[in-house]
Each structure stands twice: as C-alpha cells, then as structure tokens.
Amino acid sequence: MQVDEVSGEELNDLARECFVPAITWACPDFRGRVAVQELGEAVTLSQSHWGGPMSAARTDRMAARGSTDNLLFFCVQRAGQTGHCQHDRFAKLVPGSGVLTETRSPLERVSSIETQNTTLGFSRGLLPLSTGEITEACARSVDPAAPAMQVLSGYLGRLFEVAEDLTASQQLDAGRAAIDLLAMVLRAITPSVPGGDGPVGVLLEMMRVYVREYLSDPGLRVEELARRHYVSVRRAYTLFERIGTTPGAYLREQRLLAARVLLSDARHALLGMSDIAAAVGFLDLSTFERAFRRQYGTTPAGWRRAHLHGSRD
C-alpha cells in the first residue's frame, strides 16, 4: 500500500502520481493524506483525507492529450461535502453518496471544508456499460439511501481494510466484484441511451467473458473470437468501439493483466518467463516481453522484482 502525506504545494504532484494530472489549489495551511491499494487488473482503491478547502481541475488540453484518458473514478463521500462538474452537470456529494467521473473529458472537483473519500479507479474497458452510458452516468450523484449504493459503499470500505491480506488473485477477483457492484449502481441512475446495452450489450459482454476465460489459448485471435460468436470481424470491431477499444487491444490487455497477476504471486515465483508467457497465450517470449514493456514501462522480470510478495490463504 502506498501512503502519501502532502501540503497544498504538493497537490499537483500527488494528483499526477496517484490519480491523473490536474491543476490544483488549496488553502495555505492545507494538509492531505492518501493511501492507495492496488487490486490488480488496472484497479486501485484509495482513501483520502483532505484537511481543508481545495479544488482540482482537468482542462480540455489535459483531457485531449493525457495518456490516462481511459480511466474512470468512482468517489464515495465519507465525510464533508464536495462538488464534481463534468459534461455540464454538477453533482453535490454528501456523506454516503457517490459520483463517477471520466478522465477523457474536462472535469472539476471543489470542496470548501475538510473531507474524506474512498475512490475506486479502473480502466473504462472493465466496466460493462457502453461508452454512451458511461458518459451519461458521469457527474450524477448517487443517493446514499439507495440500497445498491449502500452495498457498494460498505463493500469498498471493508475491501480497503482487508486488501493487503488477500493474495494477488483474490485482489483481482475483489476488484472485479467492486466494478460489477458499481455497474449495478450506475444502471439505476443512467438515463436511457439510444443504442444502449440490450442484445448488443449482452453480445459484447459475452465476448469479453470469453476472452478472459480463454486468453491462455494462443490460437485466440480477433478472427476466432468473431467466429465463435457468429459475427464478422468488422462487427466485432464495432462492438468493442462501445467500450473505447478494439478486440485485439482488449485481448492483449487481458493477457498482460493476467501475466501481472502471475508475476506478483509468490506461488508462481519459480515459473520462468517463457512459462508465464505461454500461460497467458504468448507463444513467443520476445513478443510477450516487448508487449509488456510497452504497456507497463518495465520488463516482466522487472515487474516481478518490484511487486512479488508472499501469498496468504
């Protein structure tokens, strides 16, 4: 777990390191604290304590040029009040409420008092909603009295407390469960969107599940994925456009995420890199290492050295 304590002058650096680049402002005596827990599969869970008035804004230019524009954040207000503005909507958060924001569009967050938050951050491709539905869900406050919100809020709070005691694979499963709960919450507040989920959304989700279940098969390619689901390759590309990616990119991302889990788990410490590559569907070690470095900025061996930890039952 990463823990940072900062002053107002250090907020910009903290935002860039733990969340996304933003322009921040805080009162002169501001103090903040953020603890971040990685849950695998491009999922993080953080708890923040902001000790006074502050604001953070992501500009049009930042949103257009950022390398993290595929990220989503769901913030649960624990104490105090904050306001979130995006897509010409303003969501006021009170304790127990929550709000979704996306980094590919300009956004602003403001608070005038001391606040505490729990925030789930993840790749937008992991959320089983269409691109339009995600955009429509952003900056809409979720009622703290809603049963689904209460379930999600309680789950995230408890998960943060026990995450360090979970194995890497358990953390991965827990992160996926959190996103599934969030999808349940968002479906209740998202207005009807033309071309929403329906049968098309079900088909897309079936294809995503298939990728995750059979990613170790080196023969799984876009053409095979399309054939298995009785659609053309062109149709497969159209379906994955709904979550802002391509079938090939999604397959590669899931294979590399699975490799990260194996590399981070002490139970697989004796597996060689060729075995890791084969386990996630890469026949060629150099192709695997090249793709891993491009995605994460380090080699598989480097990732293992930095992240390998003991597993607990």
From TrEMBL:
Taxonomic superkingdom: Bacteria
Ranges of residues in domain HTH araC/xylS-type: 205-306
SUPFAM superfamilies, per the entry: Homeodomain-like
Alphabetical list of Gene3D superfamilies matching this protein: Homeodomain-like
Sequence intervals crossing the membrane: none
This protein's UniProt keywords: DNA-binding, Transcription, Transcription regulation
Protein name: Helix-turn-helix transcriptional regulator
Species for this entry: Pseudonocardia yunnanensis
